[in-house]
Amino acid sequence: MVMNQVSEKAWLGQHNDYLVDAGNGHRLHRDVISPFLAMQDAAQKDGIDLQLVSSFRDFDRQTAIFNRKWAGQAQLLDTNGDELPFEALSDNEKLHSILTWSALPGGSRHHWGTDIDVYDRAAVHNWGGKFNLVESEYLSGGPCHALSCWLADNMEQFGFYRPFSVNTGGVAVEPWHLSFRNTACAFENARHLDGFTKAIEQSDIEGKTCILPQLPSLYNRYVLNKGL
């Protein structure tokens, strides 16, 4: 089923009544669960332990992620995945480093239940290093390289694609992030700046004095991922 209408609260991650349980605390849009399980089964047959790292996240959860990073309670990374010195960053530098990897609440594709982050659980376990969900782990020599290659060859037949496959100057390249195209497109088309702005204004997000004056450009650069 392709959704034709998506409510404002749905794309903002403030309401989602079409989620189903995907196991291990994960939830997905009801239209996505069967294609995901079919893709997971096909990967398993090819020796790939494709598992979810992240699935649906609501507005409040996304706010908490942003606020932890704003407060320096979680590491900030540059576009290459290298850690940045938190204390040396201005508020504006801090904001852009966060948005390179983590969306503003209301602006995350994970709000829709159509988008997932995946990894090869068995390969990561056997690798034994600290898994950080960065691009190098999905390139040659990384524990999820075989998964990344398998996805490139197979994901489209199950309806998935990578929305962050190229760095445009917005969101960093995320080879682990997959989107179920047919359902996600309805959410994409429903987004608008006015609703996003109102949600941020009414939220408990930190850094509002830095965020709000430049929200239109942040919306285009990161939420729509139009980049620079």
UniProtKB/TrEMBL annotation:
Q: Which GO terms describe its molecular function?
A: carboxypeptidase activity
Pfam families, per database record: VanY (PF02557)
Q: Which UniProt keywords apply?
A: Carboxypeptidase, Hydrolase, Protease
The D-alanyl-D-alanine carboxypeptidase-like core domain covers 26-181
- Report whether Protease shows up as a keyword of the record: yes
GO BP of this protein = proteolysis
Segments traversing the membrane: none
Annotated PANTHER family = D-ALANYL-D-ALANINE CARBOXYPEPTIDASE, PEPTIDOGLYCAN L-ALANYL-D-GLUTAMATE ENDOPEPTIDASE CWLK
Descriptive protein name: D-alanyl-D-alanine carboxypeptidase family protein
Per the UniProt record, the lineage of the source organism begins with: Bacteria, Pseudomonadati, Pseudomonadota, Gammaproteobacteria, Alteromonadales
